[in-house]
Amino acid sequence: MSTFPRNPDLHCHSTASDGWLPPAEVVRRAHANGVDLLALTDHDTLAGLDEASAEAEVLGVRLVPGVEISVTFASETVHIVGLGVDRHDAALNVGLAALREGRQQRAQRMGEALAGIGLPGVYEGALRFAQNPEMVGRAHLARQIVASGHMPDVGTVFRHYLAKGKPGYVEHRWARLEDAVGWIRGAGGVAVIAHPARYRLDDIGMEHLFDRFVACGGEGVEVVSGAHSDDEVRRYAELARRRGLLASRASDFHGAGESRIDLGACPPLPDGLTPVWTRL
Fold first, then answer.
1. What is the pLDDT of residues 128-149, one digit of tens each?
2. What is the reported pTM?
3. Torsion of Cα atoms, 232 then 254 then 133 then 188, to 10°
4. What gap in Å lies between CA 251 and CA 259, rounded to an integer?
5. How far apart are CA 196 and CA 198, in angstroms?
6. Closest to 228 in 3D by CA, of 202, 206, 252
7. At what angle do helices 203-215 and 177-186 cross, to 10 degrees?
8. CA distance 185 to 191
């Protein structure tokens, strides 16, 4: 009986969105860490997939084309990962293009808010950290603030300036949950709720999120995530069992200096779950 994959990692980022490494280098790092099934899931873009696919073919890594779509749900930003999508699907590409336009406009407004509290030039400086101006986001703004010497690290920047309720945060309406799941399914992919423990939803709100997600065709949840504690892994493993959802394993790797877990370093899925890679 085949044991493939031995070390799957189904959520990570490159310079195509807010990661530190180019797509090919992400694949090389994953390969060096023993990852044999990798999904590149940049925020609201498919731009890194061609480069990643070429390198994966050279190294013998199976690459799953993916994307992480920004969604607004109950005034909270929720991320839906699409795995196994057709990168050429017209509806998916049109939807992502609209999200990227809104992302850039939001970053500019955040730069203006930061200038108003004595941090000028953050948006302009953040552009050097982004491969594409359309993809400038909070991570790039945070890196510029660190580079300017105002804060020691990106996490501190978020806690002081860029988290919800902080002076540099700007509200934004992302995609509807139903639209994001529809784009993924229409492109032949599997929709997965990313790192659910990160969302500021109470128990009722979380159940409502999963009700809506399943009703519109969502199929999976990241049980094991770089953002999850052991207790949270157990909680979402039970949720996946109870709701019959596919379970994913994902580092959410952005870069060695910013991520809690390296590519391929997540613990295995708990027993009694159906892995999402059985559908890929």
1. 998 888 889 999 999 999 999 9
2. 0.90
3. -60
4. 8
5. 5
6. 252
7. 40
8. 7
Burial class (CB in 10 A: 0-12, 13-18, 19+), 80: buried
Query: ∠ CA(258), CA(225), CA(207), 5° rounding?
Result: 125
Q: Which residues of the chain are modeled with pLDDT < 70?
A: 1-3
Tell me the CATH number of domain 101-162, given options 1.10.8.80, 3.40.50.620, 1.10.150.650, 1.20.1250.20.
1.10.150.650
Q: What is the pLDDT of residue 257?
A: 82
Pairing label, strands 220-225, 190-193 = parallel
Find, among 163, 217, 200, 222, the residue nearest to 73 by Cα.
200
Task: Judge whether 29 and 264 are in contact, CB under 8 Å.
Answer: no
d(CA 277, CA 249): 9
Tokens 């991320």 map to which residue?
79
* Residue 37 half-sphere exposure toward CB, CA atoms < 13 A: 18
Q: How far is residue 263 CA from its own chain's centroid?
A: 14
3-state SS class at 164: coil
Query: Is residue 95 a contact partner of residue 89, using CB atoms and an 8 Å limit?
Result: no
What pLDDT does residue 3 have?
Answer: 67
The span from the CA of 233 to the CA of 23, in Å, is: 28
Backbone angles phi, psi at 157, to 5 degrees: -60, -45
Predicted pLDDT of residue 1: 36
